[in-house]
Design a protein that fits this description.
Helix content is 41%, strand content 9%. The chain is mainly α. It has a two-stranded antiparallel sheet. Strands 3-4 form a two-stranded parallel ribbon. Helix 2 crosses helix 3 (77-90).
């Protein structure tokens, strides 16, 4: 992100997630959940990746899509995310 010609680090605070999910759920129209991986910060380990997907899936409406950015240079993130998402959708939390 650029501010006044200088690069500024993006902020992704876990404390913001409940507020955004509350807003998404209070809206009757579909909302697009973006940046669930916090620019890769929530994808540093398999457990964090799963937690980020699980959090989004359990805290937004069923009709809301999720957009996930990927950079599959070093691994097949498309296949990994698809496998994880399929698993989570087939095994919802009890």
């Amino acid at each position: 992100m650029l501010a006044a010609g200088k690069r500024v680090a993006e902020r992704f605070d876990d404390e913001d997630r409940p507020l955004m999910c509350k807003f998404i759920n209070e809206t009757t129209k579909p909302c697009i959940a973006i940046k669930i991986l916090a620019a890769g910060r929530n994808a540093e380990t398999p457990d964090r990746l799963e937690e980020a997907f699980r959090y989004a899936l359990t805290n937004i409406k069923e009709t809301d899509p999720i957009v996930v950015g990927m950079f599959p240079k070093h691994s097949d993130q498309v296949a990994q995310n698809t496998t994880l998402l399929t698993h989570l959708l087939n095994h919802p939390p009890s």
